Each structure stands twice: as C-alpha cells, then as structure tokens.
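Dear colleague,

Thank you for sharing your sequence with our group. We've completed the structure prediction you requested, and as agreed, I am returning the results in plain text so they can be pasted directly into your records. Please verify that the sequence below matches your submission; if there's any discrepancy, let me know and we will rerun it promptly.
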Amino acid sequence: MHRFNDLTDAQLQAKATTMLRRFFGYTSFRPRQLEVITAALRGRDTVVLMPTGGGKSITFQIPALILDGITVVVSPLLSLMRDQVDALIANGIPAATINSLQSDDENRSVTRALGAGHIKLLYISPERLLADMPRWRPDLPINLIAIDEAHCISRWGHDFRPDYTRLAMIRDTRPDIPIIALTATADRLTRDDIARQLRLQDPLTVLTSFDRPNLSLKVETGSSLRRRIATMTSLIDRSPSDTGIVYCLARKTTESVSAELKKAGYAVEPYHAAMSADRRMEVQSRFRSGELQAVVATVAFGMGIDKSNIRWIVHNNMPSCIESYYQEIGRAGRDGLPSETVMFYSVADLITLRKFADESGQAAVNMEKLKRMSQYAEARVCRRRMLLSYFGETMDHDCGNCDVCLSPPVRHDASIPVRKALSAIIRTGEEVGANMLVDILRGSSRADLVAKGYHNIKTYGAGRDLDAATWQSVILQMIQLGIVDIAYDRSNKLFVTPYGREILFSDQPVMLARPDDMAHREKARKAAPAERRRPSIDPMTVLRDLRNRLAAKEGIASYMVISDPALMAIAAVMPASLEKFAAIEGISDRKAVAYWRPVAKELARHFKQYKPEILHSRYDTLFLLRRGNSPAEIASLRRLSPATVYNHLFDLYEAGAITDSDLPGIVDPAVYRSVINLYLSEPKENFYDSIEGRYPDGLVRFILAIARKKGHIPPAST
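Please find the predicted structure tokens below.
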C-alpha cells in the first residue's frame, strides 16, 4: 500500500489542498484537518474529536481521493449514509453505500463496482461490515477505514451501541489498514476507551476547539406550552426559508407540539421511533429537501442529520447529558452562518431524566452526567464557557452570544417564598410533587388537592402573589441548591433536606436568580412581533428558487446543490463568468460546470443590468482541463462520454485555445507515439481492429486528428 514515503508533509498537504479546491470548492482547511489527513496518508491510526459541523468528514474524504483504492466509512444510520453519498456524488466523487434498504441487485451492483475500481468511498453500517468483510476478496484494495460516531463503541459514551464493540474484528481481518475513529462528543474516558476497543496502534489523537461561536445559546425555565410554541413560531418566522428541529423527550409530545405548529400554519411534521419506517423516511426526505420548516422529534432523529442550513434548534425538554445536548445543538449552523438554540428546562424534566438514569444500568455515571447537564441549565455564568469546560477547554472571556451574557441575572433575596415552599412541603407530610406544591401555594381548587385536605393547611394560597412559572423557577433552584430533593422511590415526592430545615428555622438569607418576567416578555413580544419575510425579487430569492428546482430535478437536498454561504456570496458578487463563479468558496469543479449556466441565465432573466459571459460548453471542458482534471475526470464531472470530451478538446485545439504545450497533459507522449507508429505500420483496414479496447473511447481519434494537423500522418483522404 502506497504511503507516499517519497513525499514530504508539505508536498502531501499541497496535494490535499488541490483536492479540496477541485472537489469541494474551498481554498484552505480548518484547524488540524491537514494534520489528520497527513497521518492517514502515512498510514497512522487516528482518533479525531471535532465538533458537529467542524469538518470531520473531510479528514477521510480527502485521503480517499488521494490514495489508490477504496476508503470504507462505517456509519450507524442509513439516512446519514445516503445523505453523505448524495453530497459526494454532487461534487463529482464516486461514492456508494451497501445497506438493507437497497435491493440485493443494487447491493451486488455496488460490490461489482468496488471490484472494478469505480468507487472511492463505500458507506456501510457496522452490522453489514462485520457480515460482509470476511467475504470480500483478499485483494480488494481497501486503503483506509473511517469509523464515524465512534463514541458508540464505548460504554462510557452517551449513545452506546453493542454492534460497535465488534468492530475490533477489523484488526483481525485487515490489520494493515489504518483506522480513523471520529466523534463530535467524547470526554477523556470515552476517547481512551475508543482507542482501546478498536485496538488502535499508537494513535494520533486530534482535538479541536469545541467552540461554535455562530450558535447562540439560550435556556428558559418553567415556560408554559403557549410560551414554548411562541418561541418556536418566532424562530420559524425569522428563517422561513430554512429549517429547524424541536427535540422532545416523549413521543406523545412530538405529536402534540407538531399539531400546535401545524395549527399555526407552519410546515411541520413529528418524528419518532414508533412511526413506520416508510413514514420516517418520508419525513426525513421532506426535511432534507427543505419542504418542511421544522421537524419535532425524539432523539431518534439524532445522528442521521447532515443538513447544512438548519438555522435553529429547540429542546422542548432538557437532554440527559451535555454530550447529547452538544451534539444536538451542533446540527444547527453547520454552514457557519448565525443560528439559534433554545432549551426549555423544568422540574418535570429533571424528575423524568433522573428516573431514566436510575434505571439505566449505569446509574452512578448517568446521574452524574445529568447533574452536570442541570448545572449547565441553571448556569448564571457564561454558558459557552461552562459548556467548553465540560470538554476540557477553557475560554478566558465571556462569549457575548448566550442569554447569560446578553442579560446577566439579577439576584434577589428569595427567603420568604423559599420558606413558604418549605413550610408547605412539611405541612403536607412531604407527600406532594412540584406541580401539586405550586397549586397549593397559589390556592388552586383542583379536586385531588381538596380531597387530600391540602386546602386546609396554613400555607394554602400563601403564594398567590407569584405566577406558576416563577414558583417553578424557585422550586428548581431550591433543588439545585440542595434545599429540597426528590424522592424517586416515592413517586417523585419532594422532601426537605437537612440544609433546607436549617434555612427554614433560621434567618439565613436565600439569594436566588430573579426569574424572567414572563408577562413583560410576552408584552414585548406582542408589541414587536417577528415579521414573516415577504417575497421580493432580489438575487437571494431568485437563487433560492432556482436551487430548489435544480435539487428537485436531481433528487437531492437543496443545500447539496449550493450551500447557503455560497448562495449568499453569489447573490452579493453576481459573478459574470464561469471562472468568477468557480472562485466562490464552496463551488467545486463539478458544481461550477453543472450550475454556472442555470445560475447565469436565471439572474440575467430577472436583472437586466447583469450581463454574464456564457460561452460554448466546450469551454467548460477547457476550464476543467486548466483546473488539473484529466479527460477521463472531465467526462465524469460533466457526465459526458469520453468521445465527446475529446471532440471538445480537438475543437479547442483547432480554435487555438489549446496549444501544443497543453497536449502532454491530455495524452501521454508515449501513447501518442505508439498510436501513430501502429497507424503507419498497419494497413488502414486493420488498424481499428488491432487497437480496439486498448485506449479510452475517443482518444485514438483525437490523437489521429492532432497528428494529421501536425503532419505526423497523411491527411484522411490519402
């Protein structure tokens, strides 16, 4: 296996940068990507920890393009594989997947293509790899194995999957193949376990910054369903052409929240594991294409999301750990544009999640992870600094893009409401949960409260001066401070801790963060409602419309045609030539020749001052040749026959656009001489029979045409 021992790191990195420009349309790598790529090309095992949207895929896709043979990518979800394969094909990269959703004939076709050397990247599930790999030909040229979502291999990870633990079999089957293990969410314990489980040899561990400064971070406590829906609709209204995700803890909640948003007139669908496979695929497809403005989902919609223009994430309930939360908010803003995240947090969430953790089989670990998650939710310091510190990264300044930074909390003396709550808990015999406690304090007349005689206790109605949301915030902070706790073995009843009793019977002040003034917020929201974007004839609107049509025609997601940042750059620059269009970041060689004409014609149709230079399609072939593509690569990128490409090249030679100095880059001089010598030595009637199958279709005719023009062989009439 070629490991480029004859090349320096700088030379390898130059090759990698060329591939990045040609196939992805970017001129530079993100931090530490080149380090991983170089290690892979040298054959070294690597553990890569990069944030969601941080460019993990590039670290194995670039080596796949440089190395001979096949890169196998292990991925846990079929939908994610399909998205990645579609995105690669859209960039002119030969990729495929073998999976259970394809027919046996389709999978056999992929296997044949692998054997013929027509595929560079193969995406496959761990189960399928373990079943198929022992049956693959020993000489199948696998050069690299990338294991995505590698935290699934570890029992310490937040999404442990038993099938992943068997991937160490790779070392028994093909011990010579280097492995890249990639994840966006893994603490130190999980990272070490990944390397041990996969039996990695002296792995390079690469950790990049977890900071996603384009994501705003916000947490709201104890908000009503009405307020939550209002927040969601506001987010949709601010980005009506983009998409968002609402994560819910329960399947039932996805249905109810989705119904509320639909009632308000938004294109929204629920998604959860109880839905049929066909129904889930339909929702994914509509979300992927941009037809839906949002999906309301359980975590079943987690790792299968690879969509660059998700503009917002809402957690209707608090996640069970920071790893899950970080991964889920990381679905937003993968294209680098500003995106919003909001998490709602309630006592009910804490109760449910503590129960789940207690029943998980790893209660101690999961309870501690939940504790860290709730501490984040209750943070009164910069949330980004707290989030980064969890992953071992420090930041010496506040981010200025989280709710704590933008609206620092005001602490106030909450001693009176805290003591009212403590008194009420004790007077009920510590037999009520949080919701019942709020109703007692606010003087509710609900039947079960009255039936138990709670309307007769001294503190009944003593908290009418505070609304329910404020009381929920007070109780939550009391739990976090250890003033009260939850008895999970007694139907989540609240009980007073020794610390709480000390507070109750002393003059010790209790300082709590002042709850949000919900009434004021609601009033402000109504006074300045978010406006829906009105359609207008501007370049971005025109380009979005065109992109949707092109995506529908190709059967891929719109962001795979042209990303939002690239679309915004096109709208701003209004490139007037193919070369200027291709200079836009994110426009690969294949996208340049595929979309330049549609984009130029559509802009010219709407904006009379725009005068693009649209040349004959043979000049697209010249453009690709100048970018370093071979005739075979040009044929693949343009989806033309090799013969057509060689016809273009001869026409360009005739027109003087291609000179003699360009010819060695088109046809190998040795091949040129061989063809000419055979033509001159063989009778003309035997020539084509004797040379058939030796060279690509169209190459021989191109050589003969050039040779006649240069006088190396007689004219055709002779």
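Summary note from our side: The domain at 9-207 is CATH 3.40.50.300 (Rossmann fold).

Kind regards,
the structure core
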